[in-house]
Amino acid sequence: MQEVRKKRNELLAQTVIKGLKSRNMEGYYASGREEAREIALSLIPEGASVTNGGTFSAEEIGLVDAVKAGNYRYIDRKDSKDRYTAEREAYSCDCFLSSVNAMTNDGILINIDGNANRVSAIAYGPKKVIFIVGMNKVAGDDIDSALKRARNEAATINAQRFGLDTPCTKTGACMDCKSPDNICCQFLITRYSKHPGRIHVILVNEELGF
Ligand code: SF4
């Protein structure tokens, strides 16, 4: 990544961390993937039950593999024969790993979901939620800008990734569809956490996820 962009991201991350603090959420800055993984692991107690609702960013930094290999109880919904039960276990787990689809400069988190297992667990249930967020997902100073990123980038790329029959996979932009295949059924805006110490956001100075 260009040095000037890295510098700008490093400065912006401090603004985002202040915004998170004002919303009762903890923010951390990591200059790269390894540092992000170490911060995340330091937040997960030994023996904890851990799962996720589908997060490419946590996989990219090697966190999912590290948890699988470590002294934790990893609930693997992908390999589970009964995915519905595995997804429901997330509500009582110790740590839930996720990314965001976008966030604002002042710490508001935006997530869009088709199945709702991910957004519902972010909103309520797991004792701790740990977000891995590449600085490419910090999308401006208002909710509207972040929603635009979430719909026109994150959702359209995910629809492409899953090979869905939606307008965005043909046009590359969100067409606000009601297609049966659409993955934009539930929108979660997290603007404050009622529970101190529950939400942790690790900002990584790299491009991660979509
Ligand atoms: S076109 Fe449909 S599936 Fe694609 S991003 Fe928009 S609402 Fe979501």
H and E string: HEHEHHEHEEEHEHHEE
CATH architecture: 3-Layer(aba) Sandwich
Ligands (ions, cofactors included): iron/sulfur cluster
Could you give me the name of the CATH homologous superfamily?
A: NagB/RpiA/CoA transferase-like
Determine the N-to-C terminus distance: 17 Å
Q: Give the overall pLDDT as a whole number.
A: 96
The helix fraction, in percent, is: 25-40%
Largest sheet: 6 strands, parallel
What is the helix tally? 8
Large-scale geometry: globular
In terms of DSSP E residues, the strand content is 15-25%
- List the uncertain runs: none
Using DSSP, what is the number of strands?
A: 9
How are the strands ordered across the major sheet?
Answer: 1-9-7-4-2-3
**What CATH first level would be assigned?**
Alpha Beta
Radius of gyration, CA atoms, in whole angstroms: 16 Å
Count of discrete structural domains: 1
What is the CATH fold-level name? Rossmann fold
Question: Helices and strands: which structural class?
Answer: alpha/beta
